[in-house]
Every structure is written in C-alpha cells, then in structure tokens.
C-alpha cells in the first residue's frame, strides 16, 4: 500500500516516473514479460535516471518493477537477436551495460525495491543499486549459463564483492534461485519485509537518507565504488574533490583574481599539516 502521494510525469512507453517528497520512483512497466527490458526500456530508464540526477529536489531514487510478480527478469529473450536485444530500429544492443554504469556514477543513493523475481540482467540491476529492500516473495538468481548469456562485468565481480567469491560462483554456475530470507543471510539485500509493506519500508529508508548530508552521501557512494571501479571510479571521486575545492574560498580567490586581472593572494589560507 502506498504511503506517498506520487506525482507522475514524462511520456514513456515502458516505464513510469513518479516523484514525491524528494524521492524519484522509477518503475519498469512490462509486467506481462515479468518486467524484462528491451532497448526502448533501457533508453527510457537512462532518461529517467538522468532526470532524477539533474533535479535538485530529488535526494533518493527507487528502482522497481510494476506489479508484485517481478522486479525485472533481465533482457527480453523474445527479441534477443544474434548480436544483442533488437529494438524497432532493427539494431542489436546490450545497452543495459550503460544503465549499470549510470546507476553506479549517479551521485545520489539508488534503492532497488524488489517484489517477485530479480533474475538474470534484472538481478544484476539490483546488485548495481546502492541498497536493496526485498518483499518476502522476492526471488533472486542468475540464468546466464542456462539461457546462453553471461555478464562478466558488474554482474560477476560486483556480485562477488557483495556475497563473496564462492557464493557468487555458485549463483552463476548453478543458476539456482534464492528466496528473500536466503538473500538476506548472504548479504545480497538490506532488509526483507512483508509484500504489503514493501513500498512503505522503502520510502522510510529514503526519508532517512533525505535527512542526511547530501554531500557526505555523495562522497561515500563515490568512495565505496572507487575501489572496484578502478580509474573510472577514481575519476568520479576526483571530480567530487574538485567540486569541494571549487566551493572553498581558497579556490574562489584564484577565480576572482583572474576575473579582477590581479595577482591571486593565497597568503590567508593555511598550509595544513
Ligand atoms: C522470471 C521467471 C523465473 C518467471 O517465471 P514465472 O513466474 O513462472 O512466469 P513465466 O510464465 O515464465 O513468465 C510469464 C511471462 O513472462 C515472459 N517472460 C519472463 N521472463 C522473460 C524474459 N526475460 N524475456 C521475455 N519474456 C519473459 C514469459 O515468456 C511469459 O510470457 P508468455 O507466457 O507470453 O510466454 C521466468 O519467466 C524466467 O526464468 N524468465 C527468463 C529469465 C532470463 O533468463 N532472463 C534473461 C537473462 N539474461 C539477461 O538478462 C541478459 C542481460 C544482458 O542484457 C547482458 C548484460 C551483460 C552482458 C551480456 C548480456 C546478455 O544479454 O547477454
């Protein structure tokens, strides 16, 4: 049951974009295919995540699936061609990879709100989110070796970072499915709640996040991701360091001196130990 008065906006075919109280809720809306994604779904998700990033009112983002049967069942196998997922333009794509990177780089917390199946590429999406709140009917797993695919990027090593190497191998090699209780035990999700309380609980986590310092959350997300994202993670973190420096009087003295056509005076700024 919703505890929030969501306001819907955007012209989308495969998703919904709702906002309220500083929260953006992005919903994959293809329940007849267990919320499997096609290229259009992913382009729309990218657009919605970008809107949430650019909106200064938004401080937390929920990613979810329509209905209570599935969060997302991964790539739409019915439109899988010989070189990726084929959209209306006839081009094969694996553009879920761009969405994964976007979620990782987005400097606001993203919470996966999972009811039903989070399977295949849908499972990877929740792994890429900062936090996961699961309903008691949630089911998690990878299907790659069963359906002729695999995700050797975040889907493999971020999962291993999350649940440990042995468990990650088990999940990928055997393609078993795990219930919400097992997912909680292996650290794959943050909390499990009855299905009817899923949105209420997820919104409560968002409200707690919204009470916290946005810059501190941004820096923490960047710091936690930097280790596993290598140079790309460091680039994000370095950009945030520059942002913080720009906000200091010391950096502003350099800018102002250039504009005033004078020599900068940094003498009042401490040379910290
Ligand atoms: C989700 C499952 C377990 C649900 O089972 P359930 O509840 O018994 O329902 P079903 O009757 O099976 O399904 C209901 C209807 O939904 C359709 N459907 C379900 N999943 C998909 C799907 N993924 N694509 C298309 N249709 C789907 C069913 O067909 C059914 O409709 P009808 O009755 O009309 O046929 C179960 O459905 C299940 O196991 N689904 C398949 C899960 C799966 O294998 N997903 C794909 C895994 N692979 C990826 O996601 C690849 C990710 C990716 O893009 C990628 C990323 C990085 C690198 C490579 C790749 C890559 O693609 O290779």
The CATH architecture category of the largest domain equals Alpha-Beta Complex
Largest sheet: 7 strands, mixed
Helix content: 40-55%
Total strand segments: 13
The name of the CATH topology of the largest domain is: 2-enoyl-CoA Hydratase, Chain A, domain 1
- Bound ligands, each once: o-succinylbenzoyl-N-coenzyme A
- What's the CATH class of the largest domain, please? Alpha Beta
Pathway: Quinol/quinone metabolism; menaquinone biosynthesis; Quinol/quinone metabolism; 1,4-dihydroxy-2-naphthoate biosynthesis; 1,4-dihydroxy-2-naphthoate from chorismate: step 6/7
GO biological process, one term: menaquinone biosynthetic process
Binding site for substrate: 34, 73-77, 85, 117-121, 143, 149, 246, 261
Binding site for hydrogencarbonate: 142-144
């Amino acid at each position: 049951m919703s505890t929030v008065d969501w306001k819907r906006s955007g012209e989308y075919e495969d998703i919904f974009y709702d906002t309220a109280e500083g929260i953006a809720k992005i919903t994959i809306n293809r329940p007849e295919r267990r919320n499997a994604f096609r290229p259009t779904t992913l382009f729309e998700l990218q657009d919605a995540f970008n809107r949430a990033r650019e909106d200064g009112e938004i401080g937390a983002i929920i990613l979810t699936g329509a209905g209570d049967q599935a969060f997302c069942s991964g790539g739409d196998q019915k439109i899988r061609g010989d070189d990726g997922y084929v959209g209306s333009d006839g081009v094969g794509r694996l553009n879920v990879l761009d969405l994964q990177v976007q979620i990782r780089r987005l400097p606001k917390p993203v919470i996966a709100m999972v009811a039903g199946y989070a399977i295949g590429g849908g499972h990877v999406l929740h792994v890429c989110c900062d936090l996961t709140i699961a309903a008691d009917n949630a089911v998690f797993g990878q299907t790659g070796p069963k359906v002729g695919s695999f995700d050797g990027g975040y889907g493999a090593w971020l999962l291993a970072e999350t649940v440990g190497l042995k468990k990650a191998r088990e999940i990928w090699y055997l393609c078993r499915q795990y219930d919400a209780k097992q997912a909680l035990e292996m650290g794959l999700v943050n909390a499990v709640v009855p299905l009817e309380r899923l949105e209420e609980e997820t919104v409560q986590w968002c409200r707690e996040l919204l009470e916290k310092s946005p810059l501190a959350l941004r820096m923490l997300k960047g710091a936690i991701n930097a280790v596993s994202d290598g140079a790309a993670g460091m680039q994000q973190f370095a950009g945030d360091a520059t942002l913080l420096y720009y906000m200091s009087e010391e950096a502003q003295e350099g800018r102002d001196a250039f504009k005033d056509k004078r020599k900068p005076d940094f003498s009042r700024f401490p040379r910290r130990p």
